[in-house]
Design brief:
This protein is of the alpha+beta class and 236 residues long. Strands 3-4-5-6-7-8 form a six-stranded mixed β-sheet. It contains four helices and twelve strands, in the order αββαβββαβββββββα.
Length: 236
């Protein structure tokens, strides 16, 4: 008697969207489609929810008019994936996406707790594969911001980010984005209160302060060996 391998039923984005439209899932069930698999998102704790709210305030102040900051909303990135990142900044106005979800984003931010390895590996691969130029992880566990840039091999299974920088929550210097014009945002709210646009005199750009990203109290635990060499490139 032969043994048959278990075969999973995988879903295209169109099939997944049809299930959503027809009410197949419970209205309060939080799901996302990642590489043809339907993933159930974990419930939010208070630090996670607070970090998301503060990050949204900081990014809205930084990007300003002409940009839409979306919170846990779908992105139709590829034919097999429709993730719902914690925060995504897209061009335009909310009405621009009345008939269809955005197919890309200028910046994606995830705020993981128990899902840190998943966001570092599988989500980073997905976003690099979709050509997302900039991806941030607000790492509440280690009290640092991880910045990923320069997606390579986009469109392939081996896609990844060529640049990764790890910035401690206590960093005084502001963190810029590739897309803040022509001055960029400092990052201290998800790690406590946004103060709007803050000019970082060293980089001559607006910068989000690390305190605007709300990290819990405590001593920094960020010890990544690549931090020192890569930090300067992030604010440049």
């Amino acid at each position: 008697m032969s043994v048959q391998a278990v075969v999973l039923r995988r879903w295209t984005r169109r099939e997944y969207e049809r299930l959503v439209t027809e009410g197949f899932f419970h209205p309060e069930e939080r799901l996302e489609l990642v590489e043809k698999e339907i993933i159930r998102l974990t419930p939010q704790g208070s630090p996670h929810a607070t970090a998301i709210s503060l990050c949204v305030e900081a990014l809205r102040a930084a990007f300003g008019a002409g940009h839409h900051v979306r919170v846990q909303m779908p992105l139709a990135l590829t034919d097999d994936s429709e993730p719902e990142p914690d925060v995504a900044v897209v061009a335009g106005h909310p009405r621009d996406y009345r008939d269809a979800h955005p197919t890309s984003a200028l910046l994606i931010v995830e705020v993981p707790d128990a899902t840190l390895p998943y966001d570092r590996e599988r989500k980073a691969n997905l976003y690099a594969r979709a050509g997302i130029a900039e991806y941030w992880i607000v790492n509440l566990l280690d009290r640092c911001l991880e910045v990923y840039r320069r997606p390579t091999r986009s469109g392939t299974a081996n896609a990844h980010y060529a640049h990764r920088a790890v910035l401690p929550a206590e960093r005084r210097k502001g963190v810029g984005s590739l897309f803040w014009p022509p001055l960029t945002p400092s990052l201290q709210e998800p790690f406590g209160r946004p103060r709007g646009r803050n000019v970082d005199s060293s980089s001559k750009r607006f910068a989000v302060r690390m305190t605007q990203l709300s990290f819990p109290n405590g001593r920094p635990r960020c010890t990544d060996s690549r931090r020192a060499s890569n930090s300067a490139a992030v604010s440049a």
